[in-house]
Amino acid sequence: MLQYGSETNNKDLRNSIINFGSRIGIIINLVIACFVFLLSFFGSIILPSASIIIRMMFLLPPLLLVFQIVQVYFRVSFENKQFALVSFINSILIFSFFRY
């Protein structure tokens, strides 16, 4: 999406590329999330507490995709200040949750 979206000057074509890629990505990531969620219930996991952690992580793929779609939109729209702000906030949030 980023490659084709940034190369075209036609806004309609750029938006249609982003919409198509977003739809396909969301569908695939929801399938992955459902698979991970079902795996946490029906999969044979050696550690019993691991299934709880897997259940908590099942929304991670769709949420990361939404974040990446927002970043791609800002990049192809040449809104570099918004892209930098979103990336900065993401970095701060990641480091605030993963401190030692």
Q: Describe it for me?
A:
The protein is mostly helical and 100 residues long. It has one domain. It contains 5 helices and no strands. The protein has helices at residues 2-7, 11-42, 48-56, 60-76, 80-97. The protein is flat and about 55 Å long. The N and C termini lie far apart (36 Å). The model has no long low-confidence stretch (mean pLDDT 85).
The N- to C-terminal Cα distance equals 36 Å
Order of helices and strands: HHHHH
The helix-and-strand class reads mainly alpha
Q: How is the main sheet built? A: none
Q: What share of the residues lie within helices? A: over 70%
Q: What is the number of domains?
A: 1
Number of helices: 5
Tell me the total number of β-strands. Answer: 0
The radius of gyration over CA amounts to 17 Å
How big a fraction of the residues is strand?
under 5%
How does the overall form come out from the CA principal axes?
Answer: flat
Mean pLDDT: 85
Unreliable sequence segments: none
Q: Which SSEs are present, and which pair or pack?
A:
Blueprint: H1 2-7, H2 11-42, H3 48-56, H4 60-76, H5 80-97
